[in-house]
Amino acid sequence: MPDTSRPATAQYVIPPREGDDAPVRVVGLCKSFGRQKVLKGVTLSFPRGKTTVVLGPSGCGKSVMLKHLVGLIRPDKGQIIYEGERIDILSERRLGPIRRQFGFLFQQGALFDSFDVYGNIAFPLRELEGEAPYDEEARVRRVLRLVGLESAIAKMPSELSGGQQKRIALARAVVLEPKVLLYDEPTTGLDPIRSDVINELIIKLKQELGVTSIVVTHDLASAFKVADHMVMFHEGNVVLEGEPEMFRKSTDPIVSRFLRGEASEEELRAIREVTSANREAARSTGGAP
Ligand SMILES: Nc1ncnc2c1ncn2[C@@H]1O[C@H](COP(=O)(O)OP(=O)(O)O)[C@@H](O)[C@H]1O
Ligand SMILES: [Mg+2]
Prior knowledge:
The longest helix is centred in the last third of the chain and has 20 residues, at 265-284. Helix 3 (117-129) crosses helix 4 (136-146), helix 3 (117-129) packs parallel to helix 5 and helix 4 (136-146) packs across helix 5 (162-174). The strands form 2 sheets. This protein has a 6-stranded mixed sheet, sandwiched between helices. The protein has a 4-stranded antiparallel sheet with strand order 2-1-4-5, with helices on one face. The protein contains 10 helices and 10 strands. The chain is 39% helix and 21% strand. The chain is an alpha/beta fold. It has a domain at 251-289. It binds adenosine-5'-diphosphate (ADP) and magnesium ion. Residues 62-63, 107, 184-185 line the site of magnesium ion.
């Protein structure tokens, strides 16, 4: 359920840095759930027509940030700016037309099981334009061709593989011709070959539709394949933002450890302590080490 409890207040929009033409900006975003501070003042821009990859360990607030961009979560503090307008303070009614400019590929369970592929993709068209828009079938077929699955038009979701379901969900996300496309962990749970099909589609949709894309992931192969711009989150803050090359060259221990897939000393020590305590316990009860 979207949170509508926050009233519209200050209309002041923090201006972008000079030369920043990003359609979507996040400024000073803070969000807590109960006593857990998830985002602690995140500021970043998503460059126009490019793909920005947001990296970071599980649970660091990537999905929470993404949901703020479409008003599914409202900030405690900070601003979400779309084309120069603050959208974090808009009412649900005024947010509607803005939300339609965003396509969202959710992390899980995207398709309606009881509708076939055609019905799934036509759904947002009918929601927006009433019963069966005159060019409905043409529009459904066009986006199915984009994801290379026109032949699946009459199939049920249960007849498709996980990778194909993702592609159908992606076709549905672009059927209203969004300006911004959000992907939450698009390759998680897919094998490397199916993941690569999704990577190719992210690149293709950017090129053919000219969309600004935002990809949240912890899949590094995917990240470096699709990214024009990268951001890394750590403990609720942005630790690095820039071109992928900056990440490859970074000597920041947090960034380089994440890219090498290495645990920190602190994490390793905690595991070793548990292991040696177990060995100790096994020895004292006469069990195997
Ligand atoms: N609606 C919510 N209510 C309470 N806690 C939440 C909610 N959404 C996310 N969280 C918590 O916020 C943290 C960040 O979550 P999330 O953004 O989903 O992480 P990730 O980076 O893996 O996408 C997690 O600890 C999660 O449990
Ligand atoms: Mg997530």
